Amino acid sequence: MDMSEDLVTAKQALRAEIRDRRRVMPQHERDEATAKLTEHLKNLVAARGVKRLSCYLATPSEPETRPFLSWAYDNGIEVLLPVSRDDGLLDWAIANDSPDENVGLYGIPEPTGELIGPIAINDVDLIIVPASAVDKKGVRMGWGRGYFDKTLGSMGKRPPVYALVFDSEYVDSLPQEVHDQPVTGVVTPSALITF
Predict the structure, then answer these.
(1) Which domain holds residue 117?
(2) Across the strands, what pairs with 31?
(3) Whole-angstrom distance, CA of residue 68 vs CA of residue 162
């Protein structure tokens, strides 16, 4: 096995462990994490004077984003939500106050709004991305499909990028491949960290 195969295998094992841990997380812990994450995200948006951002609709096992999205909508902050495409790129839709959602590729929740194309993300002040884990150097490990790495890697001028994870998923170090895009910071229930 060469080094890149070792990296891929290590990442797959780590993702499986994180999925298992997330699956058995008690609901009261999840609710508490959601409340704390929402506060940190509101503080981040306020501190940076953000008017337009991109975020995502969390899957049932991910740190929940919907209370934050509702707050952003209520406060006049425009939010772009990703829609996965077959070609590995992300389209975007502007979040609205509708509770309706579509089921996208891979069973991921997606917005129902009108699609505005991949380059719309170039006009946001802040990007919030999902992650399975983030390390202390800003290395983000996603779920292996590469959508956000491609998107971030293609941006000429990138705004701050923060990943959302549970506390146990902010780790000392992660395996890193060439295409992995670093993040500016991480938001966990107990902390908002900028690297």
Answers:
(1) 3-194
(2) none
(3) 14
Split at pLDDT 50, 70, 90, the class of 62 is: very high
Cα–Cα distance measured from residue 189 to residue 68, given in angstroms and rounded to the nearest whole number? 13
- Which is higher by pLDDT, 124 or 10? 124
CB neighbours of 192 closer than 8 A, spacing ≥ 6? 40, 43, 44, 162, 185, 186
The CATH number given to whatever domain includes residue 60 is 3.40.50.10420
CA separation for the pair 72, 27 (Å, rounded): 24
Mean pLDDT of the chain: 91
Total structural domains in the chain? Answer: 1
Dihedral of the CA atoms 10, 13, 19, 23 (nearest 10)? Answer: -150
With 70 as the cut, is the pLDDT of residue 105 above it? no
For the cut 70, the answer to whether the pLDDT of residue 118 exceeds it is: yes
Distance CA 150, CA 145 (A): 10
